[in-house]
Amino acid sequence: MQHAGLAAGASVLSGLPAFAADAFPAKALSLVVPYPAGGASDASARIFGESISKSVRQQVVVENYGGGTGLIGANKVLAAPADGYTFFHGSINEVFLAPLLNPAARYKPQDFLLAAPISDANIVLMVRNGIAVDSLDKFIEFARQGKGKSLTYATVGIDSIYHLMGDALASRLGVPFLHVPYKGGAPALQGLAGGEVDFAILPYQSSFESMQQQGRLKILTSFSRTLPPALKSIPLISQSRLVPDFEYTIGGGYFVRQGTPADRVAVLRKAIGEALAKPEIRAKLEAEGRTVLQPIDSQEQANRMFDQYLVRVNKLIQGVGRKTNAA
């Protein structure tokens, strides 16, 4: 009888490991950032990572993989199991532009699933110390007086939105710009501050202000239509007399590999939404130049945003006369 009781107890307990295995997350999560530490994406991911960790009661480990305009980081996510334990701090650059424009990208945008959009980053144009202009229009006049000499500009990499913007601006103005790709925002910023390049097109982050105060660079414009309160001192592109309609922002969010179980994506979405709902997190993100979005509560909403990003990217590519890999 004793053995039968033990057997019955074992049979009840045998259901527990299976139940525990279904609990998500049951271990630490990897949050992949496709650029080196110190850039705008990294700053944003660390703000989110801390809050998500508290929501899911597991550690969130931020992992930085710079290079290839985000390709290396994107491939890390796609090479991991589709189990929700690896998610991606991604943007239009890595999820959409890279696979559409870079033949080295062996994936397509649809290999990713958007769990939740988080923000639009505000993009700025800055010049190095030594270029004595104080507005975008004066910079354009300076570029036009270069007598065919190319001004050099830094971005986070080839075929990034910032690269395409530089090409589009050069084409529109009829002046030559030479693109200098870096492995991320932090190295590009150092290149500008060190005088390696003449200007940079990058997503805004709060460290730009202190570098401007030190006289190492000057922020001439934001390409946005509106700005968070923390950035009100930066001139808007609409204030330009020469290119007032040259408006761009970069949308981003948290992505997982396509095929990740819907219930696990929902857990991540809920944790991301809880972060977005916190006033202190919204304030931190706005201080880093982000226009913060509202939380969403369904995959259908996320899918609609994914489709909107794809439309925006295709318009941008067509606008600068590039051909996609599918063409």
From TrEMBL:
Query: Which top-rank group of organisms is this from?
Result: Bacteria
Leader peptide range in chain numbering: 1-20
UniProt keyword annotation of Signal present: yes
Keyword annotations for this protein, in alphabetical order, are: Signal
CDD domains, alphabetized: PBP2_Bug_TTT (cd07012)
| Pfam families, per the entry | TctC (PF03401)
The family classification in the record reads: Belongs to the UPF0065 (bug) family.
PANTHER family reported for this sequence: BLR1237 PROTEIN (PTHR42928:SF5), TRICARBOXYLATE-BINDING PROTEIN (PTHR42928)
Q: What is this protein called?
A: Extra-cytoplasmic solute receptor
Annotated source species: Cupriavidus taiwanensis (strain DSM 17343 / BCRC 17206 / CCUG 44338 / CIP 107171 / LMG 19424 / R1) (Ralstonia taiwanensis (strain LMG 19424))
